[in-house]
Known about the structure:
Layout: H1 4-10, E1 12-14, H2 51-62, E2 71-73, H3 74-93, H4 102-115, H5 117-123, H6 129-136, H7 144-151, E3 160-167, E4 170-180, H8 189-192, H9 196-215, H10 220-239, H11 244-247, E5 256-257, H12 259-265, H13 271-277, E6 286-288, H14 291-302, H15 306-321, H16 327-342, H17 350-361, H18 363-374, H19 377-400, H20 406-417, E7 420-424, H21 442-458, E8 479-482, E9 487-491, H22 506-522, H23 544-562, E10 565-567, E11 570-571, H24 578-599, H25 612-622, E12 626-628, H26 630-639, H27 645-653, H28 657-662
Parallel strand pairs: 4-6, 7-9
Antiparallel strand pairs: 1-8, 2-12, 3-4, 5-6, 8-9, 10-11
Helix pairs in contact: 3-4, 3-17, 3-18, 4-17, 4-21, 6-15, 7-13, 9-10, 9-16, 10-15, 17-18, 19-20, 19-22, 19-24, 22-24, 22-25, 24-27
Amino acid sequence: MNATKVIALLAAAAAATLPSALGAAPPPATPPPSGVDLAGIDTKTAPCDDFYQYVCGNWKLAHPIPADRPSWGRFDELQERNLAILHTILEEDAVDAPGRNPIQRQIGDFYAACMDEVGIEAKGIAPLKPMLDRIAGLADRAALADLVAHLHPAGVSVLFGFSSLQDFKDATQVLAIADQGGLGLPDRDYYLKDDAKSVEQRKLYLAHVHNMLALSGEPADRAAAEAQAVLDFETALAKVSLDLVSRRNPQNLYHRMTPKDLQALTPGFAWDRYFAGVSAPPIVALNVTVPDYFRGLDAVIAKTDLGTLRAYLRWQLLHASVGFLPKAFVDENFSFYDKVLFGTKELKPRWKRCVAATNSGLGEALGQAFVAKAFSQESKARTRAMVRELEAALKKDIETLPWMTPMTRRAAVVKLAGVANKIGYPDHFRDYSSIRVDRHDALGDVARASRFEFERQLKKIGKPVDRGEWGMTPPTVNAYYNPLMNDINFPAGILQPPFYTATADDAVNFGAIGAVIGHELTHGFDDQGRKFAANGNLEDWWTPEDAKEFEKRASCVADQYSGYTAVADVKVNGRLTLGENTADNGGLRIAYIALGDEMKGKPEAKVEGFTPEQRFFLGWGQIWCDNSSPEALRLRALTNPHSPGRYRVDGVVSNMPEFQQAFHCAAGAPMSPENRCRVW
Length: 680
């Protein structure tokens, strides 16, 4: 397990889109347009009836989902433009010619190996034979720990995850961490729900596992029996796994133990052999996130025959390696994971898959080249300035909240003052020079990159935390807040149009990137973030009275979003999405305050027929325009802590009197309900 899998439960992500780099173009001589996409607006819909349809209706009609994607939105537009930049970089660096520097050679050869379809096809699954032989040689349960220790560093996530993460109760130090894992379907509920769609998807998953095992050389009848055994085994793991909503409570994910305690919890698994096998440093204590899972895992392993264990490990190895196996495996993987689960119609072109693989394996090396082409020092400075404005607005909001008592208010202001801002890229890029990259060995390159990252994480155990570390690569179109670090992180990849456009007016920029910045800042005070103090420690700094008031307001938000329909048979899970919905509502409100401060003393002229307040809300609404397949919407509703784009717009503006005033909405209109929710 990469530590980011646990961080993802604590560090909330918000995302966005790119042509020119933020701040790269000089200001035009004539007044610029506002930055609003006028062609995307559906003027037949009243903004007070359905603001999302109003701001995105024509955009949706003009931007159908490409065949190689499950959805298409403004984030995807930016990802596509970033991909084009990375593609150009990698195509140039992949040319095996003199003059390449070490980084160009490394990322270029990694990409070239991935693109070598002829070579990959010729090798078949031979590169996996040593690992497959080890799995076939599993003779007893005692040796299972050795085998898992061999698979984990190669990126094969079987049975559980193991890595490092900050100690929740002492965020200055890094602990080993063991977490639940090992499933082939997106979440535990995919194994446990009994509705017709879930039953159908399990049948198709069973067929997929069978097909993958058969492609690897198993006879058809044996592959069928093993596939059923794998599904039964993973279902048993799912039954002892903690659900996603429960995992949103960080107190449910912190159980500090000694290795001796862990061994007592799982007597059938030889942890000393596992720790030795992964070359872990001395472990005095570790965070066992879900003790009941490990207790259950031990029982499941004890009653599972060795043949099933071998089939499960073989399947997981094939699944983890599939992107670098012959075409038959890639097509079979696409048929289930992309087509069935996401509704994608066509496989992405290989170059896109290989750019993504290079970014995953050597992200900060590739990120250096991306930053040089797409992100300037001026961009970084402008973003920092806007962050300071948003922080000032949030401070003003905290200091004037009518429901918060002075004691908690003071602690909240202290926490806000302690937020560190990471903009664009790390101060020091990661050194990947120890990874051997062979332009004729794609699977080996990926395995070595996985091992590098696994070992890098383990080397942190028992050491002080590195506060300069990033959890995303520079080209990433996303952002996050990490409560253990108490920092916000904005990669260069998201600091592009339409989130920030140098030539757009302040109102649109504050409604777009300003609200995203506010969103991340607000995460420090959402249902998860509020449980961590300014120093990153998991501790209760709220008075009981304030905690009760917060929960009452948060419940209003949860109930509001639970009433929305994600797709025909699935509602939005208001508790799963509570943190993101709270941050959307708080972030846009904070950005609105910051815009008001920015506009003081300036004329409030209309541009393209819209007031500054209207342009602000248009800026927010249009970054969430998207089209999604029903399958993608369903999967998102079941597993993703973010609401669909429609409700990130309508759900938020319907809670803001400032929106109703800006668009002159009559009381009782759909976007002007009688009851509104507000936390921050």
